[in-house]
Design goal:
Blueprint: H1 2-24, E1 39-44, E2 47-53, H2 59-70, E3 77-78, E4 81-83, E5 87-90, E6 120-123, E7 136-139, E8 156-162, H3 164-170, E9 175-178, E10 183-187, E11 192-198
Antiparallel strand pairs: 1-2, 1-11, 2-8, 3-11, 4-5, 5-7, 6-7, 6-8, 9-10
């Protein structure tokens, strides 16, 4: 009887552990798991951008971003907020300004040593520091005000390695106030993310 109970307990533990492993494999960590610096190509209506992500310093943020890429969740979203000399932000809305669904919010890794310098990529969030989920932004200046100090900053998780000129051009497009978004700095002509793919390791 003891042997049967022991076998059943072992089976339950194995099933539980395998379920945990299976659940973890869908959080982005399964994408090029041994590559600390995966690269993604962001194809937009203004041109292509290649970003090198820093999984060593921002593992939670990079895995979260790769999860959205893997689910093709950035396709047909727009850069909805552009502030010249500051940021180009997107990834959260369709061209009709419909919000896209999110995975759970993630922990803010702004204290990872990476700073909001020109042509880096960082996570957008609400006022609460741990509310980032899918929206990201490119810094189009050295934005030291976004770095952590006495307050939480904005987590940088990579840098543009190709297409800096594309992002610079984005930062100069004409914008307006949008009634649908109830926000300023919305491009008059939508800049659409057509596709985001993980590139082969170098």
């Amino acid at each position: 009887m003891k042997k049967i109970l022991l076998s059943l307990l072992t089976a339950v533990m194995l099933i539980g552990s395998s379920s945990t492993v299976m659940a973890k494999k869908d959080d982005g960590s399964q994408i090029q798991p041994d590559n600390y610096y995966p690269r993604v190509k962001i194809e937009t209506t203004m041109g292509d951008i290649v970003v090198e992500l820093d999984r060593r310093r921002a593992p939670i943020t990079v895995n979260n971003f790769l999860r959205y890429v893997d689910k093709r969740a950035y396709e047909d979203t727009i850069f909805h907020r552009i502030v010249p000399g500051f940021v180009v932000q997107g990834g959260g809305y369709t061209a009709d300004f419909n919000g896209k669904s999110n995975f759970p919010d993630i922990f803010n890794e702004s204290g990872n040593g990476l700073t909001n310098d020109l042509h880096t990529i960082a996570m957008a969030r609400q006022n609460d520091p741990h509310t980032a989920n899918r929206q990201f932004f490119f810094n189009v200046n050295d934005n030291s005000s976004l770095n952590p100090g006495r307050d939480w900053g904005y987590a940088v998780f990579g840098v543009i390695v190709e297409g800096e000129d594309i992002v610079d051009a984005m930062s100069e497009v004409e914008t307006e106030y949008s009634l649908r978004l109830n926000a300023n700095n919305v491009p008059i002509e939508p800049i659409v993310i057509k596709k985001v793919t993980v590139l082969p390791p170098l």
